[in-house]
Design goal:
Blueprint (H helix, E strand, L loop, with lengths): L1 H21 L5 E3 L4 E3 L3 E9 L5 E7 L4 E6 L10 E7 L4 E11 L5 E13 L5 E11 L5 E13 L3
Antiparallel strand pairs: 1-2, 3-4, 3-10, 4-5, 5-6, 6-7, 7-8, 8-9, 9-10
Length: 158
């Protein structure tokens, strides 16, 4: 009985302490550096290419610097989710690079969608925005398409 009560109290203490550890500037608190990383978490992006329709994207930024994302720009049979990395370049500014495989309507590989973005997190940690550029590169290294745009996001996990 004592062991079960002790476990339950410990679990409650950890659950209550977790939000406090993440509170400074939102994001995840890094014990090693004593700083929080405001970009860490899940965000809902509205992506607005300079030409073409806007689309939505869900992106998760991990403390390790990795990114996973899914968008609604094309049917799921014509694109994979994307993966990438980010690196802090300023107090609230990050450089991001993402990669996604693209297929035609028959399922044939077209190329890799490569995105480079500069993300700026708001002081409140609840929104983010910035410009981006992209290239669609064939398996042989030929640039098939390129462009740019802007995007804005809201935090979903906090």
């Amino acid at each position: 009985m004592f062991a079960r009560t002790f476990f339950a109290l410990t679990l409650c203490a950890v659950a209550l302490a977790a939000p406090a550890a993440a509170a400074p500037g939102r994001g995840v608190f890094d014990v090693a550096t004593g700083k929080s990383s405001p970009i860490v978490g899940t965000w809902l992006w509205t992506v607005a290419p300079s030409s073409g329709p806007s689309f939505m994207e869900l992106e998760t930024y991990e403390p390790s610097g990795s990114i996973t994302a899914f968008d609604d720009a094309a049917p799921s049979s014509q694109e994979t989710g994307s993966v990438g990395t980010y690196k802090q370049t300023g107090t609230l500014t990050y450089a991001e690079h993402d990669y996604q495989f693209i297929y035609d309507e028959k399922g044939k590989f077209v190329g890799t969608w490569i995105v480079s973005a500069i993300d700026t997190v708001s002081a409140s940690g609840t929104s983010m925005s910035g410009p981006y550029t992209f290239q669609l590169v064939s398996a042989h290294g030929k640039v098939l398409q390129s462009g740019s745009g802007t995007s804005s996001a809201v935090r979903l996990d906090g």
